[in-house]
Design brief:
The complex is a heterodimer of chains A (about 400) and B (about 270).
Chain A: E1 3-12, E2 15-25, E3 30-34, H1 41-49, E4 56-61, E5 64-65, H2 71-74, E6 76-79, H3 91-100, H4 110-123, H5 139-152, E7 157-161, H6 169-186, E8 189-194, H7 197-203, E9 206-211, E10 214-219, H8 221-226, H9 231-236, E11 241-248, E12 251-254, E13 257-259, E14 270-275, E15 280-283, E16 291-301, E17 304-311, E18 318-323, H10 324-330, E19 337-342, E20 344-350, E21 360-365, E22 374-376, H11 381-386
Parallel strand pairs in A: 3-8, 3-9, 6-7, 7-8
Antiparallel strand pairs in A: 1-2, 1-4, 4-5, 9-10, 11-12, 11-14, 12-13, 14-20, 15-19, 16-17, 16-19, 17-18, 20-21, 21-22
Helix pairs in contact in A: 3-4, 3-5, 4-5
Chain B: H1 9-35, H2 39-47, H3 50-83, H4 89-95, H5 98-101, H6 104-115, H7 122-127, H8 136-161, H9 164-172, H10 177-206, H11 209-215, H12 225-234, H13 238-266
The chains are: A alpha+beta (about 400), B mainly alpha (about 270).
Chain lengths: ~400, ~270
């Protein structure tokens, strides 16, 4: 039951919503399409549902040409951001809709439909709500009705378009966990569109990060977070400090800090490094090579503290995360003198125009002298797996 | 009492009720008072006159049929205006209001000229053996004309706010196009269609100017109730005119009440739980 998307292109008047997108989704997989608005993720989902069509490219599901099939022949379940419930029908009638519109031959018997509706309402924890109208339900309940309605037709593929986007934060987290459990029970191939990285990282088996109609990277949440393939992924997923690196012989420098043993054998003169806030090591005593910094502000956010650091040697301030406990132990306060050094970085070589060189990066770790770890980026995940470094970056 | 966003609740309520009383209820009360000169017995006597009965039947029957036609055609026109983009759409949209703006007598004369046996449309219909002007069909044509904008104008804003994703949801669930229309779109429009129906009906029942030109006003055949009222007035039979007015008022009230109840029932899904 593999879902195979090959070289899809879709243009809206002048801008490309999808630009040569290929993707393979395994049976039973929970895949998140993650990206900012306008990145093409919803367009991709609508093409899968049959509500939009690409100018070129193919979609194959289990060897069947999906693009040649009308939406109602595809057997997909689609859940919308704003629920899209039939507000003139009761909850039970909403869930039964997909079964009742079938032709007489394919339609289950009345009692069968009723039984299935009851079972589905139980599954989405809404038993006893069957006679209510959608207007009498909360947002979270409505979305669960929409999910039950989509599951009623026993789809081969479940598509979710920002299903929690209209809900408040607390409900969102609860529903997210619940959806993950439901997916494990049903094992249904699921494609999930979101702009919320936390949601994608927590829910998905694999994430496809999209930007401007292209897929920037496909991988497990761990890969996406720890081995981002492009500068966009670095900046979009989690937080990252950006450093400009300049070559000096066989090493790259940023404000006096040395990134030694570069893997390009002198090829590139400039590079850009991304350092996660939690990959900055802080010390109150001098460390060789470390940047001298002044602590400007501390934002306490529960178990983690976010620190704003002014570094004279760098052109812009750094953001560091440390455990609140460590903050208390070190007795840090605004205005304190600190020594800061990176422990991990993702480094992208830049060409003459200052643009990142495509499909090349260097996963740098402090203290690992040789051999340097350089990961070429390949579209296929198998390649990525082959180059994966054991004990790479740990959080 | 709960705090309200806008101040002056008592003042505005009092003002509204006074206004309603002066503009709507006072004339109606005067009408009822005038009619009471006849007494209940006289009223019943009046309603048993075959000519009166025929006129009332034509007025209400014609208005109901006209409103029904307007619901169907109005839905179609509103749908086209909201869902499609075509050259001249704005012009078409503006033209919908013309029956509102046209003096009804002008409309009546124009319709008569068109549908008379030697008119543009009438001559072709006459060739088929159909007579419109100076028959009950002519009354119907005029009533459809004056009531037409109501359904379109009440429906348009509702159609515009219908969420498209509801139709898409139905499509992915396997519904065919006619099923989407019958099971998803139409039920959501019924309350609005009923409102439009009620407005068109009320307008057609009370219509005078355009109808009398095209009707021919043949007693027992193509004579409407408002015309009888005018004729009574011309003969200085004020009590008779008022009594006929009260009868029309009562019928209209009952009809509108039934429509309102139907509308509430068809809209029951919109009520939010307490």
């Amino acid at each position: 039951m593999t879902l195979e998307l090959t070289r899809l292109n879709r243009r809206f008047s002048d801008y490309p919503a999808l630009n040569d997108v290929s993707l393979s989704i395994a049976p039973g997989e929970f895949l998140a399409l993650l990206g900012p608005s306008g990145s093409g993720k919803t367009t991709l989902l609508r093409i899968l549902a049959g509500l939009d069509y690409p100018e070129s490219g193919q979609v194959n599901f289990n060897g069947k040409d999906y693009l040649a099939a009308a939406p109602r022949e595809r057997n997909v379940g689609l859940v919308f951001q704003h629920y899209a419930l039939f507000r003139h029908l009761t909850v039970a009638e909403n869930v039964a809709f997909g079964l009742r519109v079938r032709s007489r031959r394919a339609r289950p018997k009345r009692q069968e439909i009723e039984a299935r509706v009851e079972q589905l309402l139980k599954r989405v924890q809404l038993d006893g709500f069957g006679k209510r109208f959608p207007s009498q339900l909360s947002g979270g309940q409505r979305q669960r009705v929409a999910l039950a309605r989509a599951l009623a037709v026993e789809p081969d593929l479940l598509l979710l378009d920002e299903p929690f986007g209209a809900l408040d934060a607390q409900v969102r987290v609860t529903l997210r966990r619940w959806l993950r459990r439901l997916h494990e029970e049903l094992g249904l191939t699921t494609v999930f569109v979101t702009h919320d990285q936390e949601e994608a990282l927590e829910l998905a088996d694999r994430i496809a990060v999209m930007n401007r109609g292209r897929i920037e990277q496909v991988g497990t949440p761990r890969e996406i977070y720890q081995q981002p393939a492009t500068p966009f992924v670095c900046e979009f997923i989690g937080k990252a400090n950006r450093l400009t690196l300049r070559r000096e012989g066989a090493r790259f420098l940023a404000g006096g800090w040395i990134f030694a043993d570069e893997p390009w054998a002198g090829e590139h003169t400039r590079a850009m490094a991304y350092v996660r806030p939690e990959h900055l090591t802080l010390s109150t005593t001098p460390v060789p090579g470390a940047w001298r910094a002044r602590l400007r502000h501390v934002y306490l956010a529960g178990s983690v503290a976010h620190l704003d650091l002014d570094v004279a040697a760098l052109d812009h301030p750094l953001e560091a995360d440390i455990a609140s406990e460590d903050l208390a132990r070190m007795g840090l306060q605004a205005g304190a003198q600190l020594y800061v050094s990176p422990s991990h970085a993702v480094i992208f070589p830049l060409d003459h125009d200052g643009k990142p060189v495509a499909e090349d990066r260097w996963l740098w770790r402090a203290g690992v002298v040789s051999p340097p770890v350089r990961l070429p980026i390949k579209r296929s995940e198998v390649e990525l797996g082959a180059h994966r470094v054991d004990g790479g970056i740990q959080r | 009492m709960k705090r309200r966003i806008l101040p002056g609740f008592n003042l505005s309520l009092g003002y509204s009720l006074t206004y309603l009383g002066l503009i709507v209820l006072l004339p109606l009360a005067a009408l009822a008072w005038k009619a009471s000169g006849l007494g209940i017995g006289g009223l019943i006597e009046l309603l048993r006159v075959p000519r009166t009965l025929a006129a009332l039947k034509l007025s209400f029957g014609g208005a109901t049929l006209a409103a029904a036609i307007n619901v169907v055609v109005g839905l179609l026109v509103a749908w086209v205006l909201v869902r499609y983009r075509f050259p001249g759409r704005r012009l078409f949209d503006a033209a919908v209001d013309l029956p509102f703006a046209l003096p009804t007598a002008v409309a009546g004369i124009a319709l008569t000229a068109l549908y008379a046996p030697n008119g543009w449309i009438g001559q072709w219909l006459a060739a088929l053996g159909i007579k419109v002007a100076y028959t009950p069909s002519g009354v119907l044509v005029a009533m459809v004309f004056v009531g037409f904008p109501f359904v379109v104008r009440t429906l348009q804003p509702v159609l515009e706010t219908l969420e498209h994703d509801v139709e898409e949801a139905a499509e992915t669930l396997g519904a065919r196009r006619w099923q989407i229309f019958l099971k998803v779109i139409l039920p959501m429009l019924v309350p609005t269609l009923l409102t439009g129906f009620a407005l068109a009906l009320a307008r057609a029942v009370g219509e005078y100017g355009s109808v009398i030109f095209i009707a021919g006003n043949i007693p027992m055949k193509s004579e409407i109730a408002p015309l009888l009222i005018v004729q009574s007035l011309e003969q200085f039979d004020y009590a008779g005119a008022a009594a006929l007015g009260v009868a029309m008022l009562a019928f209209s009230f009952v009809l509108l009440l039934v429509i309102t109840l139907l509308q509430r029932w068809s809209h029951r899904w919109a009520e939010v739980a307490p």
